């Protein structure tokens, strides 16, 4: 199985990422025209990792996204549910504590991390609401969430060009550089089906995150979403949160 469907069965998604692990970072560099490095810097700035803090990097893949937090002095846990990605990450960066985990059932205690982040992975989770609540659970009160995800360009002409690129240009390019080009057909379809910026912000608020905000990158092709875990006294009662 190298192609997941849009119902995002975990076994299919994990197998798809197992298949692309070896060339995943190279393929992303090519398909994103190098912009993914700029996006990673924006994530690192938003997370603001500091020495002594604990950072959970979900959908970390081979660990490329985790390195800036570790370089800043934070204890960083790269977590992914693709064994192929984890194996490739351990081979490249053997000193990092790569951990197998599903975003909807995180293998961590409550209130552990100062920051939780996920880049280009929330879109692949079958139950986004459950995942957002799990991220809230493992974050300490006052801690922060940073999501970097493909989104919807805010300028209509760019939206048209981008949509054409996703469905027409991306698959042929992927066939030349990826070990599993079919996976990138799913990538294009999943981006088109993903909620827009206000829609994802509402999902964060519904899951219990406060101070929710977003910032568009590359004209809205990618968006950084942020939220804060409220202190216990600030959390809404169960009836209010429903």
Automatic annotation (TrEMBL):
The record's section on Gene3D superfamilies has: Vaccinia Virus protein VP39 (3.40.50.150)
Assigned keywords, A-Z: Menaquinone biosynthesis, Methyltransferase, S-adenosyl-L-methionine, Transferase
Q: Is tRNA-binding a UniProt keyword of this protein?
A: no
Catalytic reaction list: a 2-demethylmenaquinol + S-adenosyl-L-methionine = a menaquinol + S-adenosyl-L-homocysteine + H(+)
Task: Name the PROSITE patterns on file.
Answer: SAM_MT_UBIE, UBIE_2
Report the top EC class in one word.
transferase
Q: Tell me which residues bind S-adenosyl-L-methionine.
A: 62, 80, 102-103, 119
Q: Name one GO biological process term.
A: methylation
What EC number(s) are associated with this protein in UniProt? 2.1.1.163
Tell me one Pfam family matched here: Ubie_methyltran
MF (Gene Ontology): demethylmenaquinone methyltransferase activity
| Parts forming coiled coils | none
What pathway, per the record? Quinol/quinone metabolism; menaquinone biosynthesis; menaquinol from 1,4-dihydroxy-2-naphthoate: step 2/2
Q: Where are the transmembrane segments?
A: none
Q: Tell me the function of this protein.
A: Methyltransferase required for the conversion of demethylmenaquinol (DMKH2) to menaquinol (MKH2).
Q: Which HAMAP family does the UniProt entry name for this protein? A: MenG_UbiE_methyltr (MF_01813)
Record-stated family: Belongs to the class I-like SAM-binding methyltransferase superfamily. MenG/UbiE family.
Listed NCBIfam families: MenG_MenH_UbiE, PRK00216.1-2
Q: What is this protein called?
A: Demethylmenaquinone methyltransferase
Give the species this sequence originates from: Streptomyces bohaiensis
Gene name, per UniProt, is menG
């Amino acid at each position: 199985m190298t192609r997941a469907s849009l119902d995002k069965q975990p076994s299919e998604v994990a197998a798809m990422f197992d298949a692309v692990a070896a060339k995943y970072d190279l393929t992303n560099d090519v398909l994103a025209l190098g912009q993914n490095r700029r996006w990673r810097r924006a994530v690192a700035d938003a997370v603001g990792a500091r020495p002594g803090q604990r950072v959970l990097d979900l959908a970390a893949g081979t660990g490329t996204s985790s390195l800036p937090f570790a370089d800043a002095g934070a204890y960083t846990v790269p977590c992914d549910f693709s064994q192929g990605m984890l194996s490739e990450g351990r081979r490249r960066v053997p000193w990092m504590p790569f951990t197998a985990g599903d975003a909807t059932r995180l293998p961590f205690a409550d209130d552990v991390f100062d920051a939780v982040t996920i880049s280009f992975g929330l879109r692949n989770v079958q139950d986004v609401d459950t995942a957002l609540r799990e991220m809230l659970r493992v974050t300490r009160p006052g801690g922060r969430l940073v999501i970097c995800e493909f989104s919807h360009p805010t300028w209509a002409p760019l939206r048209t060009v981008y949509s054409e690129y996703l469905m027409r240009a991306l698959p042929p390019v992927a066939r030349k550089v990826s070990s599993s080009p079919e996976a990138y057909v799913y990538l294009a379809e999943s981006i088109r089906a993903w909620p827009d910026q206000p829609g994802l912000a509402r999902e964060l608020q519904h899951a219990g995150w406060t101070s929710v905000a977003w910032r568009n990158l590359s004209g809205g092709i990618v968006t950084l979403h942020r939220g804060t875990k409220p202190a216990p006294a600030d959390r809404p009662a169960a009836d209010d949160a429903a």
